[in-house]
Amino acid sequence: MTISDRATRPHRGSNRDRWPLQALETALKEAVDGEVRFDSGTRATYSTDASNYRALPLGVVVPRTPEAAATAVGICRDHDVPLLSRGGGTSLAGQSCNTAVVLDWTKYCHRLLAVDAETRTAVVEPGIALDPLNQQLKSSGLMVGPKPSTHVSCTIGGMIGNNSCGATAQAYGKMVDSVRRLEILTYDGLRAWVGAEDPIPGANPEADELVRRLREIRDRYADDIRAAYPDIPRRVSGYNLDALLPERGFDIAKFLVGSESTLVTVLRAEIELVRVPAAKAMVVLGFPDVYHAADAVSRILPHDPAALEGLDHRLIQLEHSQHLAAKAISQLPDGKAWLMVQFDGDDQKEADARAKKMIADLERATGASSTILDDPDREAEVWAAREAGLGATAYPPDGPETHEGWEDAAVPPERLGDYLRDFDALLDEFGYESSSLYGHFGHGCVHTRIPFDLRTADGIAHYRRFVERAARLVSSYGGSLSGEHGDGQSRAELLPIMFGDKVVRAFGEVKALFDPRNRMNPGKIVEPHRLDSDLRQGSAYRPWEPVTHFAFPDDDHRFSEAAGRCVGVGKCRGESSGVMCPSYRATREEEHSTRGRARLLFEMLQGEAITDGWRSTEVRDALDLCLACKGCRSDCPVDVDMATYKAEFLSHHYEHRVRPMAHYSMGWIPLWARLGTSVAPLANAVTHAPGLRRLVSAAGGIARQREMPRFARTRFTRTFRNHTSSTTGERGTVLLWPDTFTNNFEPGIADAAVTVLEAAGFSVIVPERTACCGLTWISTGQLPTAKRVLRRTLRVLAPQLRDSTPIVVLEPSCAAVFRADLPELLYGDQDAERLSKQTYTLAELLAERAPDWKPPHVDTAAMVQPHCHHHAIMHYDTDRELLTATGADVEVLDAGCCGLAGNFGFERGHYDVSVACAEDKLMPAVRERDPGTVVLADGFSCRTQIRQLQPDADPRHAVELLAEALAAKDRK
C-alpha cells in the first residue's frame, strides 16, 4: 500500500477493548532485544503520568537500542495494536498514559552518540534525561537550551514529543527551536531522517510520497494556518503546521516536535546546543500584587533577560507553611508578588551591569522593590522556590487538593496583566479563588493548580464548564491553550475553540497521513478522548480503605490518600543530588522509583490490575528493593513517604504467614545484639569463622558477601554505671539514649558523647531499664511488635517525659523513629508526642540549650556522609554548623544513600543493589578524598558500609571527633 492510498482511507479508530496480548507478548519476546513485560505489576506501574488521567497499558517494552524499538513497532503493527513512546512520564495532560504498548526508552536508550562543538550540535537517543545530558556536555561548555522544571528526569525524547520549554526558553526558545533533525519511524514502517530539507529524491520513494502529500495538506490550509496560529512565544497547542509554511522552510522535524507520539516514533535526534553562560545575575522584584507584576513584564523585555518568572503571594504562603525553599523566601524583597529576572553575561561585571540597568528603569517606572543576587548558591535557592511550585500547590494545608487541567495557558506577554485580572475573576466566579498563579511571565505563560472536584459528577461537570470558559478567554487574548505542557487529553477536545474547525480538520488529515490506522497514542490531539473521561478519580472512584497501623495524619487518616499522593513529577528518577531514590538510581526501573511504587499501591487499592490487596506479590516485589531510606519524605515535592508505606504493606502482607528469614535475624537484632554482647568472644568467633559464618548467614537470610559487625565485649550501659560525672550539670540533665547499635557494637561513641555533653555543662543519665526504639521491627514491617516495644519504651522513659528532660539520640535512624514514626504509630498517645518533641541530636541540643558553648578547635579536614534519616527528618544544617564552628574544613557530601540502609544491605538478594548505591557517589568520594581527611558518618549503617567497601577509610561518628579534640585541649 502506498502513502497516498493510506492517506485517503478513513480512520478505523481505536475503540477495541480486547487485544491478542498473549500472541503479541510472545512475538515481542522472541524478536526484541530488550525486556518485554505484560504482567499486571508493570501495567499498574505505567498506568498514569503527572496528569489527572489513568489508562492501563497493554504491556511495556524496554528496548536496549533504537533498532530494538523499531522491531517492537513492527510487531505492534503486525498485531494491529496501539503504541506509545514514553519519556520521563511527567506529562501533565495525559500524553504518556494510554491503552497501548508503551515503549520505555529510559533504562537503556540514553546514550549521547556524538557532539560537534564547532556546529554546537549533538546526536542523542531519546531516553537520555536532560540533567545527565548536560552533565556529559559540561566539558565542552555547551548545554541544551530549554530546561523544564522536571530537568532531573525529563528526557530529550519526551521534550521533543511535548515541545518542552522551561524558564530558559526566554533566552533559547522552545524545544522546537533546538531540534535540527529527527530519525523517525511511522507505524506503517517508513523510517527516515527528516529536517529542514526534503529527503534525497528517489532514495526513499515512500518518503518522497509522504513529503508530497504533506505539502498538499500544507498548501490547502496555508492561509488558515497563518490566520489561526497566534504569534506568541509560547504556542504549544496543536501540531506545528506553521513549520511547514514556505516562509518557515518546510521543516518536517520541527513540525513533528510536540506531536505527542501521535504521528511517529522518534529513534534518534540531532539537536542544537547553546553556550553555558559565563556569568549570571538574578534580580528579584517585588510588587503589590501579581497583576502589577505582570504589567511590568513589557518594561523588562527590552532589557533582554535570559529568564523572567513570576510568583504570587499564595505560592509563597504555601511554601512558607510547608517549610519549602525557606532560604529563598527570606531573600524576597517587600511585596505580594515577585518577578525573578535573570541576566547572563560574558563575565560577572557585565551580568551585574545589565541587572542594575533594568532595576533603575523599573524602579523609576513602577516603584518596585528589588534585590540582586550574583552568588550562585543564592540564585539556586531562589530557583528552588520557583521549581517547588507544583509540589507546594498540590496539597495546600488550608484547602482541598489541586489538579492540573488548566495549568498552562499562554497569552501575548504584553497583555499578561489584563489576562490575569480576567482569569482571576473567572477563578472567583467558579469558586476556585484559592489557586496560586505563577509561571514564565516573560513569555506570557501562566501555571496554576486548581481545586477541581474530580470525585463527583457535579464537580466534574463544573470542571468542564470552567475549562471551556477558560479556553474561550485565552483565545480571545490571542493566546494558546498550552504554553508548554501540550494538549494530551486535558486540552485536545478544546482545540477547535483556539484554532477553528478548518485547522483542526488539517490536524486530522496529517494524522491520517502518518497514522491511518490511528494506532499511535490514539485519543490525543486528533479524535480526542473527552477531557472528563479516563480520570484517575472520577465519580466512580471508591478505593479500598484498609485498617492500618500508621495513622497517616496528613492524609486524612486514609491509606488511599497516602497512596494517591504522588503527582508524578518524577523527581525520584533524578540522578544528581539528594537522597531520593537510591534503588531507582541503581536499577533505572520505574517500579523501583518512589513514583512507580506509589502507582502500584494506588492500583492495589483500585483492585483492577492488582487484585489480591495486601497479599500482592507485584507490590511486594516492587517494595523489596525500597531501602526505606526516607529520602522521599524530604526530597519528594509532595512528601510521599515510601518507607512508611512499605512498613505498612509488609505488616499486612506477612500477617499470620512465615516471613523471610532476614526479618527474624535482622528484624530482631536488638534481642540478638543483647545476647551477643553477653557472650561477645563466642558470638564474634561464630559469626566470623569462615565456615560458621556461611552457615549463620544462610540461616539468617543474610547476603554471603556481608561480614557481620562485631559485638562489643561490654555494652555502654554497663560501663556507665561506674561513671563519675565531671560536671556540676549547670545546664541541666539530659538522658543519653543507648540505641542498640551504639550500645552493643560501638560503645565508645556513647562514651565520647558523655565527654562532650559534660564538657558543655550537662549532667548525663541513661534509662534505668533496657528499652528500644523499635526501628528494625518497623523497617521489616513487624508493626504490632514495634508498637509493643515503643509502648514499653514510653513506660521506661516516663520520668523524663514528665519533667521534659531532653533525650539525646546518637543514632540518626533511632532519632527519626522518635521524631516521625512513633507519633504516627501510637497516634494520639500524649507520651509519644512528648518523646517526639523531647528528642534531640547532639548538635540540636547544643544549639538550643548551650548556644554559648564553644566547641573545641579541630585542625583537620572532614568529609561527612549524613544518614538518610537525618537528612529526611532532622535535616543536617545544625550538625553542619556545629562541625564548622570547630574550625574544621568540612565537606558535607551530597552523595545519596550509602546503600546499606539498616537491614536492607544485609539481606540476601540485596547486596548488588546495596553496593551499586554506594558506588554511585559515596565511595568514589571517599576514595578520592585528600590524605588526612577524616570520614565522618553518624549512622551505624553508613559506617558499616564504608568500612566493608573501603576498610582504610576508618569512618567515625562526629561526636568522637569532638571528644578527641576536647581531650587534646585538656592535654595542652
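Second entry:
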Amino acid sequence: MLNHKRSALSIALAVALTPTLAMAQSATTSADTTASEQQAKAEEAANPPADGAIKQLDSVTVTGIRRAIEASIITKQAENTIVEAISAEDIGKLPDASIADSLARLPGLTAQRYGGRPQEINIRGFAGDFSTALLNGREQVSFGNNRGVEFDQYPSELMSQVVVHKTTSAELVGQGLSGTANMKTVRPLDYGERAVAINVRGDMNRLGDLKDYGNRLSASYIDQFADDTWGVVLGLAHMDSPGQSKQYESWGYSNGIIGGGNAYRSEIDNKRDGVMATVQFKPNDRFESTLDLFYSEFKRKGSKWGLQYGLAYGSGSTLESAEYQNGTTVSSQWSNISPVVVRNDYNETDDKLISVGWNNKVSINDHWTATADVSYSRAKRDETLLESYAGLAGDASDSGTFTYNSNGWYDSYLGADYGDASNLTFYDPDSWGGARAQAGYLKYFQVKDTLSAVRLDLSRSFDSGFISNLQFGANLTDRSKSRASTEYTLCTTAACTNNVEMAVPTQYVKGTDFNFAGISRVLRLDVLGMLNDGVYYLVGKDDPDINNKNWQVDEQVATAYAQLNLDGDLGPVSVKGNVGIQAVNVDQESEGVATFDGVALGDSNTQGTSYTNYLPSMNLSFGFPHEQVLRLGASRQMARPRMDQMAGNAVFSYDQTKQKWTGSGGNPNLKPWLADAYDLSYEKYFAGDKGYFSAAYFFKDLKTYIYSQTVQYDFSQLPISAETLASYSSSTIGEYTQPVNGEGGKIRGYELALSVPLDILWSPLEGFGIVANYSDTTSEIHPDGPGTTQPLPGLSKYVSSITAYYERHGFSARISSRHRSQFLGEVQGYGGDRERVMFGKETVTDLQLGYTFQSGRLANLSLLLQVNNLENEPFRSNNDSLNERVNKYYEYGRTYLLGANYRF
C-alpha cells in the first residue's frame, strides 16, 4: 500500500478545519525518518531480538546498558505523544531492581521513598493520584485508598519496556492528568526466535553492622511454533527481599522545647511471586490475536520495637535544665518523665493482583482495520496492624537527659533498663483508650478493587492526502473499589475498664538489643504470638472514625474518541501529528452510612452523580534538517477524584469543647480535576540513535481542584428528634466539612535532558557515556483552598538525575544519582488513614558493575553486582526549617545484589 507525502496545503486545511481542537500535544517523530520506519524501530525497541544483549541498531553493534538507552531513544522518537521510556537491557533485565527506581531517573519524574523502597511515582510535580498506570495499554487497579499504582507490585524482570506519556492523544484511553505509565511485556512473534533466560541474585540489606539476607530468582521463555503463526512467552519472578530501619520521630515542639519522641528499630520481609504469560496467534497478515495474563502475590511481614516518651507534651514531665540553639532545646534534663512506653508492633500485608487481557485485530481490507479488546483486573489486600504497650511497673516515671544529635535525631539517656522484662508491665500508659484501658490495638483492613473493560477500535488508512489515518472507537469500563476496617482494643481484663497491670510473659521475649538514639536496650516481643495465644482480651471497637474507613465506590466510564493522523511536508520541514477528541461519560456512586455520636441514622444509602467531559487534543511535530524536532502541543486533561474522598459516609456529633455541631464526610458527587495543558519541546538527535538533547516547557492551567471545605449546616435536617437536639444546644446550626470541587491554579516548568555517548567527542572514550536531566517546576495551586500556603503534594521544585556508564568488551559499569528537593508526600498514618508528611531533600545513588562472557563455554553468562542507596541516604524532615527541630528521621541502609544471568 502506497503512503504518499501530504502536501502543505492539505496540512493547512486539516488544522484549519479543527479550530476547536487547538489544544494539543507534541508528536515525537524524527525529521529524517519515515513514519513506518519509526514504527518498526519502536516495535523493535519494545521487543529486543533474540540475540538479546547484543543488538544491531543502524549497523552499530551495542550491548546491555547501551542497547537499553538507544532503544528508549528510538521509542521517544517514534511515539505520537511526548514520552519518556525505559527499556530492558536483555530478557528479564530492566536497568534496575524495581520499575520505580528506573522511572525516577526520567526527565520530570521522581519517586517517593517510604519504608526504604520507592512506592509512588510523581510526574511533573503531581502526586500519584494524578497519573494512571496501564499494562499493555489496559488500565490497572490499585491497592491503596486511591488510584495510584504501587509499581513494586510489578516485577521488573517481567517487563520489556515502560513508556510514560507526558501528554495525551485521543486514542489513549485511561489517561492521567500528570502522565500515563504504560508497562509493556514482550510480544513473542515480534521477538522472532526462541530464547530462554535465567536470573539468580543474592540480596543483602546492611544497616551499620546489621545484615539481612534474601534472594531474587527469575526465568523467561520465548518461543514460536507452527511456521511462526503461534508464539508464547512465560515469565516467572520470585523476590525475597529483607529490609530494616532505624527511626526517630518527635512529638513536636512547645516554644522550642521538645515535646517528646519515638525511637524505633524495625525489620521487614518482602516476598513477591509474579507470573506473566502471553499467547500470540497470527495465521496470516489479516488477523492477529493476543492473550495476556499477569499475576502477582506480594507478602510483607514487619515488626517494629522501641520507646515512646513524653516531655513537654507528656503527663507531668518536669524540665530541670536546658541548653538552647536557634531557640530550640539541644540538651535538656527531665524528671518525672511520663509516659515512657515500650512499644512493639507487628504489620502484615498480603496483596494479590491478577490482570487478564485478550486483544483481536483484523484487517478487513487494505484500508480498514478493526480491533476488539477485553480485559479484567482485580486486586485484593488484607492488612493487619498490631500494637502493644508496656511501661514501668506501678506506672512509675523516669528521669533522663535528651541531646540533639546532628545526624538527625535526639539521643535519650534514661535511668531505667527497658530491656528487663521484670521492670515492665502491660497497661494503658496515658489513657490512650479513653474510657477503655487500652494496652494495645488491633486493626484489620481489607481493600478490594476490580475493573473490567471492553474496547472496540476502527481505523481507516488513506493512500494519499493530508490525512494518513482516521481512528475512532469506544471503551467501556466498570470499576468497583471498597475498603473495610475491623478494629479491636487489646485489654488486660475482660471488662477493659480498670487499668490493671499485666506482667510480661518471658516466653515471648525475642531480644533486648537496640543500640540507637542513645538507648542500648529495649524489650523486643513476639506480639503476634501473644495475640494468637490469647494473652490479651480483644474488645471490638466501633466509632465514627472507624465507620469512615468503610466505603465502596462504583464507577462506570464510557469513552468515545475520534482521531485524525496527519503526515505531510511544509517545504523542507516534515509535519506529522494528530488531532482528536475524547468524550468521557462517568456514572459514579457510593454506598455509605450517616452516624450521630457513633449510632447509625438509619440504613445505608447510595449517592452519586454522572457527568460528561470533552477532551480535545492535537499533536504536531515539525522535523527540521539535521535531526531536529520542534513540538507544539495542547490538550484538555482529566484525572478522576480520589476514591476515598468519594465515600458516601457522614459523621455528625456535638463538639463539647467548641460548643457547636460538627460533621464531616466524603462527597460522592465530586467531579474530576480538569486542566488545559500546553507543551513546547525542542529535540536534537545525533549520531544516529545514540544520543539526544531536549529542552521542554510545560504549562497546566487547572480549572478545578478538590479540597476540603467547611460550610454552615442545619442539623435539624438530620433524622434526630427535636428533644435530642435541644438537649445539646438551643441552635441547630453547625459546621459540615467535606471535599468539594473548588478553585484550580497554574503549574509550569521546564525540563532539560541529555544523553551522549562520549566516543562521538573523542574516539578513545568508546563505551563511555552520560545520561542527565534537570527539571524546575513552579506551582500556583493551593491544594487546601484559596488563601492557604500548603504546598502541592508530590511537588519538588528541583529534580535532577545523572548517570555515567561504561560498556565494552563485556565489561559494564553504571553509577546513577538522583536528587529531589523537599516535598509534601502522603503515607499511611495512625489509624490506617493517609496523612501528609513533609519529606526533606534527598540524593539517592545506585551502582551497578557487570561482566558478560563473550565467547567460549560461558558465552552469554553475565555476572552482576548492584548496590542500591550506595551512600545510605536517610529520609529526613524537620519543623520550622530548623535542623535542631527534628520531625522524622528514617535510615534504611544499603541493599546489595550479587548474581548471574544466563541466556540460551
